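Reply to dn_fold:

You asked what the input looked like. This is it:
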Amino acid sequence: MKRKTVIAGLAGIALLFLTFDPRGAASASVVVDRVVAVVNGEIITLSDLQREESLKKSDVKMDERLLVEDMIDRKLQMAAAKRAGMDVTDKELAEAIVDIRKRNALDDKQFEAALAKDGLTLEQYKAELREQMTLSRMFSKYVRSGLAVDEAEVRAYYERNTKAFALPEEIRVRQIYFPLPENAAPAQVAAINTRAQAVYERARKGEDFIQLVRENSKQGPSASQDGDLGFMQRQHLLPEIEDAARPLKPGGISSPFQCAGGIHIIRLEDVRTPIRPFDKVKDEIMNTLYQQKLENTYRSWLQTLRSDSHIENRL
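and this is what came back:
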């Protein structure tokens, strides 16, 4: 690519401002600016970088070298837009500003006052807006145009990354429930505990657990389901039941414990980690893949612009 050389010789020269005394004589020379990057003969100065930092309005200290790289990328895109005849015209810029003012219900003075609050003059704002509009136009043509994600790609991503769509673990518990009378006396509680312990010993020795449920657990919310509480996330179980189930493996049976107005014996039936169905995450995956394609295409395009250019980052 033919490169501009008109100001290349000035690229390494620091810009100087002179301080004058009242008699008009130069009393000192103070370096207040310097070149931090050169892009095809165009320079980016330290003051340009500092202004860029102020516009970011970030409380986090930015990596200045990376910020200069971003400024270089924008200069390359603006130059490409000019070559392609895609830069924003004065008429388009004026129309955009009128539209912005109308949408915010601002007259000329109010608009300029709002800019001043952000430390911008109208001319600075126009330059920023022109660049944003031009970059958006270039992005649409050279990056976004023609990009698509088909369902086969989405399905393949889902099958490769099923763990990413896992829901919290669920357990299925079956219980034998011995209700305690309201305001039960200690003797009543002891008697029911003794009965529950006897049933537990029978279960532990291998008797059919469901049959034991049917014989002994005719009350309670799960009685009609043979004691099956169904699949539930651990945090949704009663704390006492979750504590009793935690050390168990599928098929394991807990010793009797008291909670929720009764004595319980539980068997851990199953443990599973459900996966969100494909139809529920399809749009999410499609957006992820589309954003990945945008990023990769954008980076590839920028690399092409850079490979045809002379660039120096002097930070």
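The two ends are 25 Å apart (CA to CA).
Hope that clears it up.
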